[in-house]
Amino acid sequence: MTASRKKTSPPSVAESANDPAAAQAVGNTTEHIVVAVTRAIVEHRLLPGAKLVEQKLADRFGVSRTIVRQALFRLSQLKLVRLEQARGAFVAEPSIEEAREVFAVRRMVEGQMVRQLIAQIKPADLKLLKAHLKAERDAVARIDVATRTKLLFDFHVCMAQALGNQVLVDLIQELVSRCSLITLMYQSADDAEASNAEHVDILKAIEARDADLAADLIDRHLLTVERQLTERRRVPTLRIEDALLD
Ligand SMILES: [Zn+2]
Q1: pLDDT, tens digit, for every residue of 177-190?
Q2: Tell me: the pLDDT tens digits for 18-50?
Q3: Contact 64/58 with Cβ under 8 angstroms?
Q4: Range of the domain at 192
Q5: 84 and 143, same structural domain?
Q6: Could you state a single Gene Ontology molecular function term (predicted)?
Q7: 217 Cα to the center of ligand 1, angstroms
Q8: I need a labelling partner for 113 at 20 to 30 A (CA). Which of 22, 59, 97, 221 fits?
Q9: 150 alpha carbon – ligand 1 mean position (Å)
Q10: In this structure, is residue 160 part of a structural domain?
Q11: What domain count does the chain have?
């Protein structure tokens, strides 16, 4: 069991507790580190299993170790970093087996989810889902890998939200998060574009109230994404030492 599964809290930032402006600055800096590390993972400059040394990150970003710890905690929530007690932080290591198991569970759950959604979806939910797909398409077009990955995941979470079942929302969120590192590293721009197009087709089937078609489309979509992530992996070639040197 890793420390990331234990109940942990983000480090407190005592120095900014009574100063909203300072708290905002700390939040921005934390976010900046989260974005920089995520980008390094996307660009294969930071490899699975790499140790993230607090002091080196603090020096690199010119911040305190407290702020670095906050960023690492946030990255662990995003499943991009694994925190181990007394050993420190490491870039998570995507496992093909885990990805396969995650997609198997998602196919069991999401086909039924979409049928239930068709039975009870409201016009306002359809509108929200359409707006989401528009944002998705924009991020795909910009080749903004971190945003498009999040939005492509979130479409599935949004469907669970439209059902109003918080247990299902949490479950889907947990399942998609478990594949976030593997997706950031291995989903190509073409894969992302295809996923967005498949989401559009799924939503059309939902709008047409065609439960069999929608369930079939989501099943095929999940199979396709699973294949993209588990069968076409590129081997990273960059050295860990060069990861954060941009
Ligand atoms: Zn999808």
Answers
A1: 888 888 888 888 99
A2: 566 766 776 788 999 998 998 888 777 888 899
A3: yes
A4: 96-231
A5: no
A6: DNA binding
A7: 10
A8: 97
A9: 10
A10: yes
A11: 2
